Amino acid sequence: MTHLKIERIDTTRLDIDLKQPITMSFGVVRSINVILVRMRDQDGLEGLGEATVLGGPFWGGESAEAVQATIEAYLKPLLLGTKVQGIGALSQNLTRFVRGNAAARNAVETAALDLIGRRSGRSASEILGGAVRSTIPVAWTLSTGSAEGDIEEGERAYAEQGHRRFKLKIRRSSSNEDVARSIRIIEAFRGRAAVIADVNQGWDEVAANRYLPRLQEAGLEGIEQPLPAGDIDAAARLSQRYGIEIIADEALTGPDSAFRIAAKRAATSFGLKPNRDGGPTATQAIAAIAAASGLGIYGGTMLETSLGTIASAHLYATIDELRLGSELFGPLRIVEDIASEPFKLVDGELIVPSGPGLGFSLDEDRVAFLARKANE
Ligand SMILES: [Mg+2]
């Protein structure tokens, strides 16, 4: 088949509530804002991509409005009518003409990946180099607000869904209580499930040194982004001082930041997120830097719908050493999904669809309903 020629790009805004709000260090996340990208080729085939924002520009620098405007005003004119030689070439083109704006670039690159796959009958993971695993282990996030509630929910997730790793959020305003709650949860699941705690940049080095000894002693597997993203010298000291995983998340903004963090040993693991990194190609480069530096990998999420989650799963399936598994639980946390088939986990593992492309199809009625709701 001839190369993909991009004939049309459409964006649709969808706002979707979370089943249960998630309290992070910076505030409470109640909904996700999605920009759905549809890309059409010269033969009328369609590829899909998703950019996701956590209710506003609180977690990262982009808002849903900014993502949509960047795609409509800059990426669309750049790409319409052009031929795509391959996904790596497209990624370089996007990176050259649009700085930052990672979620916008990711949505467009993902749609092209899906479309290239549909045109050639290959799966997205095949185009990204080939899958080395067919399933991805998925952690579960506990956010009821109390240790008793979290342990109860964790027991259910352990027994009924097969999760073997839990993720907790730690607030800056109540770190003492959250650390005590985390320790109770770690103890309740000791020997059965691992626990990762995410501080979302909420601590400084003094606070980290106050809380980490207790968490390490209790058996915490890893702490995610304890310090502000820019403080990589202090993150390097924590990585050397403690024997737990120090996972970089917000500090990663693309391959260049990954190289700086790896060179300074300012993390022991990288949390991957195509939506934060600027697309699947950039995330693969970050994974390569981690592998070459002896750092571990955690497959992250922006709480995407099934679309973005499956796109991430295709990418994570190409990574041999997924030391900390993944947190691809987005579709299970949102009130309504946009997939034509329900999102499935089997024994705590996501089964990567076989394709072609992402192997994903939309529930068009649901998309139309959510689009109307977002425009109200
Ligand atoms: Mg995080």
UniProtKB/TrEMBL annotation:
Outline the extent of the Mandelate racemase/muconate lactonizing enzyme C-terminal domain: 148-245
From what superkingdom does this record's organism come?
Bacteria
Q: Which SMART domains match?
A: MR_MLE (SM00922)
Needed co-factor(s): Mn(2+)
Q: What positions does UniProt annotate as the active site of this protein? A: 169, 327
Question: What UniProt keywords are attached to this protein's entry?
Answer: Aromatic hydrocarbons catabolism, Isomerase, Manganese, Metal-binding
Q: What GO biological process terms does the UniProt entry carry, in alphabetical order?
A: amino acid catabolic process; peptide metabolic process
- Pathway connected to this protein: Aromatic compound metabolism
Q: Name one Pfam family in it.
A: MR_MLE_N
The record's similarity note reads: Belongs to the mandelate racemase/muconate lactonizing enzyme family.
Q: What is this protein called?
A: Mandelate racemase/muconate lactonizing enzyme C-terminal domain-containing protein
Organism listed in the record: Sphingobium chungbukense
